[in-house]
Automatic annotation (TrEMBL):
Record-annotated 1,3-beta-glucan synthase component FKS1-like domain positions: 338-436
Intracellular or extracellular location(s): Endomembrane system
Signal peptide (residue range): none
Pfam families associated with the record: FKS1_dom1, Vta1
Membrane-traversing stretches: none
Lineage: superkingdom: Eukaryota
Keyword terms, alphabetized: Membrane
Name of the protein in question: 1,3-beta-glucan synthase component FKS1-like domain-containing protein
Biased composition (Low complexity): 10-28
Region span, Disordered: 1-43, 389-411
Primary localisation category: membrane
Length: 458
């Protein structure tokens, strides 16, 4: 590590000296005031400027939690704090190797100077024979002193304290893994077991919008509403859903988890739309069909009402194009509610990741139309003719890059209104599913997408 710092130091020093020469030669009347990023001074004095290691350029936001851990543990173990900062610096180099982001070069230079100054004194104060052993030992100390102590407080621990402790432990473990790998030292089994518990509890204490849906949330006030409970229980009916063979079951899995597993939707999007769907169902349930004296159970009428509102425009689109809806319902009555929830959940998670495609609702209908039919095929056990295997999703969350990362000339772009017209024509079904890459909808540059009812030449 010291060699890397020495190597970077020369380039950083020459950069600073050249900047100093430029400032002095430009004259005092032309000198611009230096913008100092300062909140709480940490890491000592960096000469003329104060360095706040928690205030990072936006392009390096991923290293902020690690630097926060460094500040927190510095008083207990300066060497571990140094290793955290060094790991953050190395990560910053990988995130922005050319220092092209705003303020990145200045920040990396300041952090490098901090590391140069702290290396020798923290090394002299190291207790263990290696950095890997030092950070592993401190992780165990932190886990016992803070996490176990808070957990054993019999419910007296504040949620914010626990959340902060778990975040710190996660950051320490990230640094621990890196240092141990570099020094070829195996991580103790006890540490791995402790980190598994930390990761599980971090998931439980994850932030939420309105509804705390983690497994230990049953006693939360919001979750006591019978209508909320009814919607949650209905979503957790995953009976009969074909999970992948390598799927790892977790507590309180629900229909949205299955959609994420099968189609590759983003985790945070799934969490947001889970809450969205529960609130939609509960709001209709509580206003239209209250059952205060009965066991929480989702009323089928409430479910039907929400579904009709959600798919009103999709049904109109299907009718306009003379296509059958993909909202196929099973003949077994006990499975109908689950299927409806699957269809509604699928639409919401598609919409949640649609970004600017929301300006093209008919395009979303097209995507949904095929994915909903895939759900019907998977649950019915249909076999794909080309592969002679059970039907699987055609797409699993891959992202396509278009418009040369936004660098194409504006005249070569196709705008939302124009593209959306394509999905008001029955010709949109020429795309197929999976969509054919050679379809005339995709080639660049585009001269004519479709006939008189479609786009004009660009």
């Amino acid at each position: 590590m010291r060699d890397l710092i020495r190597e970077e130091s020369s380039s950083s020093s020459s950069l600073l000296s050249s900047r100093a020469k430029m400032s002095s030669s430009s004259g005092s009347d032309q000198r611009q005031p230096v913008r100092r990023i300062r909140r709480t001074q940490t890491g000592g004095n960096l000469g003329e400027a104060a360095f706040d290691s928690e205030v990072v350029p936006s392009s390096l936001s991923e290293i902020a939690p690690i630097l926060r851990v460094a500040n927190e543990v510095e008083s207990s173990n300066p060497r571990v704090a140094y290793l955290c900062r060094f790991y953050a610096y190395d990560k910053a180099r990988r995130l922005d190797p050319t220092s092209s982001g705003r303020g990145v070069r200045q920040f990396k230079t300041a952090l490098l100077q901090c590391l140069e100054r702290e290396n020798d004194p923290t090394l002299r104060g190291r207790v263990k024979k290696s950095d890997a052993r030092e950070v592993q030992s401190f992780y165990q100390h932190y886990y016992k002193k803070y996490i176990q102590a808070l957990t054993n407080a019999a419910g007296k621990a504040d949620r914010a304290q626990l959340t902060k402790a778990y975040q710190t432990a996660n950051g320490l473990f990230e640094v621990l893994k890196c240092v141990s790998t570099v020094q070829c030292i195996e991580v103790d089994h006890e540490i791995l077991e402790a980190q598994d518990k930390v990761a599980e509890q971090t998931e439980i204490l994850a932030s939420y919008n309105i509804l705390p849906l983690h497994p230990d949330s049953a006693n939360q006030t919001t979750m006591q509403y019978p209508e909320i409970q009814a919607a949650v229980y209905a979503l957790r009916n995953t009976r009969g859903l074909p999970w992948p063979n390598d799927h790892k079951r977790k507590k309180d899995e629900d229909i949205l988890d299955w959609l994420q597993e099968m189609f590759g939707f983003q985790k945070d999007n799934v969490a947001n739309q889970r809450e969205h769907l529960i609130l939609l169902l509960a709001n209709v349930h509580i206003r239209q069909f209250p059952k205060p004296d009965q066991q929480p159970k989702l009323d089928d009428r409430a479910l039907t009402e929400v579904m009709e509102k959600l798919f009103k425009n999709y049904e109109r689109w299907c009718k306009y194009l003379d296509r059958k809806s993909s909202l196929w319902l099973p003949t077994i009555q006990q499975e109908v509610q689950q299927r409806k929830l699957l269809y509604m959940g699928l639409y919401l998670v598609i919409w949640g990741e649609a970004a600017n495609l929301r300006f093209m609702p008919e395009c979303i209908f097209y995507i949904y139309h095929h994915m909903a039919f895939e759900i019907h095929g998977m649950l019915a056990g249909n076999v794909s003719p080309p592969t002679r295997e059970n039907v699987q999703p055609a797409y699993g969350g891959e992202e396509a890059e278009r418009s040369k990362q936004g660098k194409s000339k504006h005249s070569h772009w196709r705008n939302y209104d124009g593209l959306n017209k394509y999905f008001w024509s029955v010709d949109c079904f020429r795309l197929g599913w999976p969509m054919r890459a050679e379809a005339d909808f995709f080639p660049l540059p585009v001269k004519q997408l479709i006939g008189k009812n479609g786009l004009s030449p660009v």
